[in-house]
Design brief:
The chain is mainly beta and 185 residues long. The protein has one domain. The chain has 1 helix and 11 strands; from the N terminus they run H-E-E-E-E-E-E-E-E-E-E-E. The protein has a 6-stranded antiparallel sheet with strand order 1-2-3-6-7-8, with no helix packed on it. Strands 5-4-11-10-9 form a 5-stranded antiparallel sheet, with no helix packed on it. Strand 4 and strand 5 form a beta hairpin. It is globular and about 45 Å long.
Length: 185
């Protein structure tokens, strides 16, 4: 046998090595990349700890409210999974009591007047499966349609001080500010 002839063992291993090398050589761009980036935001206000988890849809030149997101239909400001809203203790959102817990957050955009903000008791829900019951909160929030353009949907806390603040939801030129109060106790 020549010193360069493959052994029977190497002939069995060679196909496996070739397969592994071909899988490892797949370029990163060919792998599935999520179109909406995942994000988390957390904030402490007084003794309350808030955490938001969501996937940020991108406008990409599309008309958003009234077209991509229909008027008068419940929608979550997130892609893939519904926006998860968690709070460590009882607080008030837009003046209404919200118990400590994990929720999914939903909106009902309207062409005129205030939008409905809804919290649901199930926090892990697909973004396109609107719950039919189990709502824990329903309040109206007046949107602004003159905000600076935000290409990717953004959720953030603003005006946080000792016992109050706001949760902001902003996409395109539309923005909602949801007042937060943390009662002493």
């Amino acid at each position: 046998m020549s010193q360069f002839a493959p052994s029977p063992r190497s002939l069995r291993i060679a196909p496996l090595v070739a397969l592994l090398l071909s899988v490892a050589a797949v370029p990163v761009g060919a792998q599935a990349i999520q179109a909406s980036q995942s994000a988390t935001v957390s904030q402490a206000i007084a003794e309350a700890r808030f955490e938001i988890a969501y996937d940020r849809p991108v406008a990409r030149g599309r008309e958003l409210f009234g077209v991509l997101v229909p008027w008068n239909e419940v929608w979550t400001p997130s892609a893939n999974l519904a926006l998860r809203f968690s709070v460590s203790r009882e607080v008030r959102l837009a003046g209404e009591v919200v118990a400590a817990g994990d929720y999914s957050l939903w909106l009902e955009p309207r062409a005129a007047g205030p939008w409905r903000l809804l919290l649901h008791g199930e926090s892990r829900v697909a973004h396109n499966v609107v719950p039919t019951d189990g709502w824990r909160l329903e309040v109206e929030i007046e949107p602004r349609s003159d905000a600076d353009h935000m290409e990717a949907l953004a959720v953030y806390f603003s005006n946080a001080n000792y016992r109050e603040g706001a949760l902001d939801i902003h996409w395109g030129t539309t923005a909602l500010r949801i007042p937060i109060e943390v009662p002493a106790g």
